[in-house]
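Batch job 17 of 40 flagged for manual review because the log was empty.
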Amino acid sequence: MPTSAEFSEGQTRTGVRGWFVLVLNRAQYSSVVLASFAFGIFLPFIKEDLNLSALEIGILQGVWWITWAVTILPFGIWFSKFRPATIVAVSLALLIPFVFMQGISTNFLMLLASRFLIVLFYSVGVPSRPLLFQQWAAPRQFASINAVGLSLHSLIMALAVSATPLLIGAFGSWRVAYFLQAGLMLIHLLVWMVVARDSKAAIPDMDGLLKSSQKPPFGAILRYRHGWHMGFAMFSLAATWTSIVTFLPTILQEDRGIAVSSSALLMGFMYYALIPGSLLGGFVNRRVPNRKTLLAVPVLISAALAVLATITSNSILLAVFLTGIGLAWVAVPAIEMLPFELPGIQPREVAVVSAMYVTLFGLGFAVGPVIVGIVAQVSGSAQTGLIVLNGLTGLGALAGVYYPGYPRIEH
């Protein structure tokens, strides 16, 4: 059974269709997670309409990422043996009705169920991403393609966060935004079925290869234990990010008198600098040979700036701190490609190790808002919850301290 490096050996250039397929796949992720990352902007409207408590808010955000964390690894083990493009199409088709269901939710339980089912079905397709990279792209361009995807993701998030209050105001309802999201996902599905055809890939037939792995793929999470280091670093980044985007807009409105439309523009600074900055992902991958630094430094920067953003009352400083939190994610495209560097790893094992660290990534997104919600419920202050949470996430930098320095992919 060839290793991941041997599997892609000889591919020196990624075709235009390969770039489009992989960036589109990242855009699908962006379009789905709008329901989570923009939740803080929807929150004042939904909270009033459905009469939600602080704990229910934390649960609504947390269920998204708890479901992700629980399902990604088993789905990665099972679905990594099937054609990745087909699995992605099935995933999109299953989740679209429940994106629409969010918009017709009339109570907490209905909204909770719709969010749970969206992420459940989306998780089916997530482990296909590393397999799509190996099928469609040249290894030396993995990080660069991922960086372009993150840049597009940041653009989508910035537009969504900034425009959502205006959209809700124009239509007089937060529900319309979810209906539009469902329509966007339908377009994604139709385009994917046209462009992501196996016959056009650099490696057209992966079936035999994926089903003939000599090693049980589940064992990869034990054989490649350094994947856990990647996961803990991403856990910390995720917990910081999702807690800020969930609770800071409400803090700004209730404690500092900043309108939702204005706080949305401020929250957009997390994305504005990251749109061009994330394009440096390939450069970071090449210029930071010390993988310890690659994991530890972004975690420390993100946690420290999140605390400062929580306590500052100056809007200019707040914009600066939020920009810095966004820029800490410039390293993420390179971090996400680290499983491909593990010595002797096979294609399906890459999918499983990636699923394992994505599990911890999702767990960070889940745990962050829940911890903040619990502390806020006990202390009566969401600000206190954010400070406590980010004090804890700073410890994630320890993951980088114990990570080894494997060579970069240089085919």
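Reviewer: the log was empty due to a logging misconfiguration, but the result itself is present. The mean pLDDT is 83. Unflagging and moving on to job 18.
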